[in-house]
Write a structure and sequence with these properties.
By secondary structure, the protein is mostly helical. About 75% of the residues lie in helices and about 0% in strands.
């Protein structure tokens, strides 16, 4: 499947927007920790907020399918910040 140049621009824009969004989340996370909120409580709240947003946008079944591969991705280290890439 070939993609048009516009789709490459769109992917780059989405990547930049996701990076910016992650920076906003990191700032909020750091502020909450500075206020004494436990990181595990933050993790649960962030997961709930993310999943609720996905369910609202895409529905329960689509969201369940989207996250079905998370166990494998987690086991493969995709969410480990201190992993070494060989």
């Amino acid at each position: 499947m070939f993609s048009s140049p516009n789709s490459h621009t769109m992917q780059a824009d989405q990547s930049e927007e996701r990076q910016l969004a992650l920076e906003y989340i990191a700032d909020a996370w750091n502020s909450a920790e500075a206020d004494g909120i436990d990181s595990e409580a933050l993790s649960h709240a962030a997961l709930f907020a993310a999943l609720a947003t996905l369910v609202r946008a895409h529905g329960e079944e689509a969201t369940a399918k989207l996250i079905a591969d998370l166990p494998i991705r987690i086991s493969n280290g995709e969410y480990s910040l201190n992993r070494s890439i060989q």
